[in-house]
């Protein structure tokens, strides 16, 4: 019987936003792996998982999630994590990996699945979709992500503020992920493109320290790394104007 690795999206932090299918996948797996930074603190994925499975079923595996500059160190951490999960698969056969958001949207699961597939040939890889930060922020702020024929552009600001500015100059709604360390550049890009007034940002969604605010309040100070921004499309013509 082949090994089975399931990437489970557990949402942005609110345990009530894990899908029924996600909970079932976590409970069905023999082991649930949660990613941990090399500093050791409990992450959002682990905190969410512990609402649904007992702690003795959870295995913490270190990923260099806070490594942005040293590629060799980051890849060495990925390799070590892949080896650890491969060993768990050989021992247990069924492993779930919990990831915040969705396992197919900027998730460490992508790299893990590739590595494990090479180490344990024949492993069946599946994913269970999760609610994303942009969906949660839209719900909490009242921002509408898309209407009619509008496009939706998702940009990781780790790619540079210039990439975000290009998107803001285009049509439709723009969502920016991971912009906390470049909040000043993001605010300037919003001002320059005339997208500041309707934009909203949020961090720690669903957690006690949650913050959801108008982007006009950005003062250039640093924000949490996983902050999310929504700049809604420019909408004219009334209801259904872009159908």
Major sheet details: 5 strands, parallel
Mean pLDDT: 91
The whole-angstrom Rg is: 19 Å
Q: Structural class, please?
A: alpha/beta
Helices and strands, in order, run as EHEHEHEHEHEHEHEEE
Helix content estimate: 25-40%
Q: How far is the first residue's CA from the last residue's CA?
A: 50 Å
Number of strands: 10
Question: Tell me, what's the shape?
Answer: elongated
Low-confidence stretches: none
Sheet with most strands: strand arrangement: 3-2-4-1-5
Strand content: 15-25%
How would you describe the overall organization of this protein?
The structure is a single chain. With 243 residues, the protein is of the alpha/beta class. 31% of the residues lie in helices and 21% in strands. Helix 6 (161-168) runs parallel beside helix 7. The model has no long low-confidence stretch (mean pLDDT 91).
């Amino acid at each position: 019987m082949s090994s089975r690795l399931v990437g489970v999206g557990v949402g942005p932090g609110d345990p009530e936003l894990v899908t029924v299918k996600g909970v079932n996948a976590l409970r069905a797996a023999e082991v649930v792996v949660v990613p941990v930074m090399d500093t050791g603190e409990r992450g959002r994925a682990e905190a969410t998982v512990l609402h649904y499975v007992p702690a003795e079923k959870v295995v913490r595996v270190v990923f260099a999630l806070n490594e942005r500059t040293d590629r060799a160190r980051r890849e060495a951490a990925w390799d070590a994590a892949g080896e650890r999960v491969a060993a768990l698969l050989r021992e247990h056969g069924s492993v779930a990996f919990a990831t915040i958001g969705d396992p197919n949207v900027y998730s460490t699961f992508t790299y893990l699945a590739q590595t494990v597939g090479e180490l344990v040939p024949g492993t069946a890889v599946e994913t269970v979709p999760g609610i994303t930060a942009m969906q949660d922020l839209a719900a909490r702020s009242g921002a509408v992500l898309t209407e009619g024929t509008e496009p939706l552009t998702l940009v990781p600001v780790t790619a540079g503020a210039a990439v975000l500015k290009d998107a803001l100059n285009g049509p439709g709604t723009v969502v920016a992920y991971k912009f906390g360390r470049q909040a000043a550049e993001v605010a300037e890009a919003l001002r320059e493109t005339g997208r500041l007034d309707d934009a909203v940002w949020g961090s720690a969604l669903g957690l006690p320290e949650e913050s959801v605010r108008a982007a006009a309040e950005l003062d250039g100070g640093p924000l949490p790394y996983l902050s999310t921004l929504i700049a809604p499309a420019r909408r004219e013509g009334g209801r259904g104007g872009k159908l």
